[in-house]
């Protein structure tokens, strides 16, 4: 008994020493993820001071560029279909909308015609908007902006986007060149260096080998919102594809680091389940097809079953990256994962 107490005491001392070292030197975290998984949103959140430091005009133009891209898609789709699908005649007042969209993008606030088009979409084309938000990846956050309050607010030259507005848009990459990006942030006294290989997914085998023994954790992003979407080339489910790649990464000989799987867009996932039953895409699921908690447990088990037995431990976090309060708690939990657990 005395020997066991001594060993436990030594273990606690080792953990405390290790934790102190971690707080001094920090942790290196490799950031990976499928397309449209929220990696860029996470980066924006970690570098929130960078978003806040941008002047109001730059912030307005960033949001307006995203909104104009989405509205232009809606406009062209409705003109092409000429309402055969959605059963309303397209108003002539929007005949020159493309010109007004270009003006709005350049000046950073809405023209009257664009504001009226937003109101028209919400009032008369809500079915089309919902379908588009669920099936066109870059438009999955368009509904955040589609209300009369936003249309009126963004028509004022002095309007200011909120931090949530900036997180909802698809932030442009800072460079056209493919490169490895590093950025740092601190949680619970630990400095984290995040390493993002950026757009080099096509060369995964090559760049992953560069990080052998150089990272403490792998943070992998997967969009839950992709559960009802298929790859246009292979016809495979996009969520299954993302899980498969994550399984390959965590089972790789290059990594002995723990994997933290961020299952993102939990809010979109819950909302989509009311429109697209889970069993349509995962027929082996036997639970309540509209219950997000049951569906999530099924997906976690499905992921773990596909892992190599030698794979390191996997931690799951179901998140809405645009919920800044939730993410504060999540990142504190992430920091605790990277410390010794004393039992």
UniProtKB/TrEMBL annotation:
Pfam families listed in its UniProt record: G-alpha
Family annotation (Gene3D superfamilies): GI Alpha 1, domain 2-like (1.10.400.10), P-loop containing nucleotide triphosphate hydrolases (3.40.50.300)
GO BP annotations, alphabetical order: adenylate cyclase-modulating G protein-coupled receptor signaling pathway
UniProt-recorded name of the protein: Uncharacterized protein
Alphabetic keyword roster: GTP-binding, Magnesium, Metal-binding, Nucleotide-binding, Transducer
Residues annotated for GTP binding in this entry: 196-200
PROSITE patterns in the record: G_ALPHA
Organism, scientific name: Naegleria lovaniensis
Example of a GO MF term: GTPase activity
Residues binding Mg(2+), per UniProt: 173
Cellular component aspect of the GO annotation: cytoplasm; heterotrimeric G-protein complex
């Amino acid at each position: 008994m005395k020997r066991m107490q001594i060993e436990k005491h030594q273990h606690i001392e080792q953990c405390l020493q290790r934790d102190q070292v971690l707080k001094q030197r920090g942790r290196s975290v490799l950031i990976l993820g499928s397309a449209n998984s929220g990696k860029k949103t996470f980066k924006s959140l970690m570098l929130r001071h960078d978003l806040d430091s941008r002047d109001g005009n730059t912030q307005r133009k960033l949001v307006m560029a995203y909104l104009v891209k989405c509205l232009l898609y809606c406009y062209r789709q409705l003109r092409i279909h000429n309402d055969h699908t959605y059963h309303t005649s397209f108003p002539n007042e929007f005949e020159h909308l493309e010109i007004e969209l270009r003006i709005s993008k350049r000046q950073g606030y809405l023209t009257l015609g664009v504001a009226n088009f937003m109101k028209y979409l919400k009032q008369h084309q809500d079915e089309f908007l919902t379908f588009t938000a669920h099936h066109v990846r870059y438009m999955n956050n368009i509904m955040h902006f589609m209300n009369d309050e936003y249309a009126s607010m963004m028509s004022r030259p002095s309007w200011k986007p909120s931090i949530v507005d900036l997180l909802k848009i698809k932030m442009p990459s800072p460079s056209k060149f493919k490169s490895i990006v590093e950025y740092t942030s601190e949680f619970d006294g630990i400095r984290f260096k995040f390493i993002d290989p950026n757009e080099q997914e096509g060369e995964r085998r090559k760049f992953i080998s560069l990080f052998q023994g150089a990272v403490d954790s792998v943070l992998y992003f997967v969009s839950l919102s992709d559960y009802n979407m298929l790859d246009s080339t292979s016809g495979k489910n996009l969520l299954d594809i993302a899980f498969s790649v994550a399984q390959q990464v965590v089972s790789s000989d290059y990594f002995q680091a723990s994997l933290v799987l961020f299952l993102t867009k939990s809010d979109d996932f819950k909302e989509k389940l009311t429109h697209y039953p889970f069993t349509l895409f995962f027929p082996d699921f036997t639970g309540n097809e509209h219950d997000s908690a049951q569906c999530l447990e099924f997906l976690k088990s499905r992921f773990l079953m596909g892992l190599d037995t030698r794979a390191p431990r996997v931690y799951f976090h179901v998140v809405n990256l645009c919920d800044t309060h939730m993410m504060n708690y999540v990142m504190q939990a992430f920091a605790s994962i990277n410390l010794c657990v004393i039992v």
